[in-house]
């Protein structure tokens, strides 16, 4: 068992720094959301955007997984499109999914975007983090987040978060200058946005690059790497761990390693053992169980957690899913995954001792 003096925050930060820990910390992407009856009860009374923009509601929803599942970190409840809205694209969230008005389709539209001040335009996110910290105290880490530039660019160009990103890929090929300007504008605003979350009390920050899977490695290197690296590099002075999640991470590992991220969160199609061999021990890993495994039996969830920890030996590893938890996931399975992950390293050491 972990040393009782090493609280969840210390455990999480040590894992991010690739320092020895007695167990792996565990949290789940999209852990505050539709699969939880507690969230559904709040959502029945308030709209999605109302929850995001009301710090007390966002804090309530953010902390539910800590109480229900016993996770080792709380991620602030928000949406990656807040930056797009603050840059001038009105956001609506009907039941069919988020929609951004006036999508960016050319260079003129890129240049009409505005730079925003997080303390003025998105202060509710920082206030939610402050409310979370006041509720849970100093011993549990709080994670802030934003979209990586390429992924947010895709949404700003497409105008919605579902379907393909063919328009974004077309702009990349046919108007590369417009794409580069858009990515640079997003990066500059995202850096200030994430920094404001750190000032509010976030212990770590994560960039989500969901649409990295749509880029070939050479395209990622040419377009996505520089703006992502600029955010991560600009935050170096904060000394908080910087986590980068990329879907399609297997083909991008070498590029991702050049971003300067302290932790790479890899998708469920990436082999953790191979990622560790490729990256060595200087970058921590997060992930990467297939979210659909948690739709089956509880024992399958437990086994998947143990198998993931086995692949890294628990060193520099934050156990998570390889993408967001699915809305139909049984809460019991999510809890089984968390508990098995938290116990995995200690159990492996007991087994090793018996084998000697």
Summarize the structure in words.
- With 356 residues, the chain is α/β, with parallel strands linked by helices.
- The chain has one domain (8-355): Alpha-Beta Barrel (TIM Barrel).
- Helices cover 52% and strands 11% of the residues.
- It is built from 16 helices and nine strands.
- It has helices at residues 8-16, 37-43, 48-53, 55-69, 82-86, 107-112, 118-121, 123-136, 149-158, 166-174, 176-200, 217-234, 249-257, 272-279, 298-312, 331-355, and strands spanning 74-75, 91-92, 99-100, 142-147, 204-209, 242-246, 263-266, 284-289, 317-321.
- The strands form two sheets. A seven-stranded parallel β-sheet has the order 1-4-5-6-7-8-9, sandwiched between helices. Strands 2-3 form a two-stranded antiparallel ribbon.
- Helix 13 links the parallel strand 6 (242-246) and strand 7.
- Helix 9 crosses helix 10 (166-174) and helix 15 packs across helix 16.
- It is globular and about 60 Å long.
- The two termini are 20 Å apart.
- Residues 352-356 have low confidence and may be disordered.
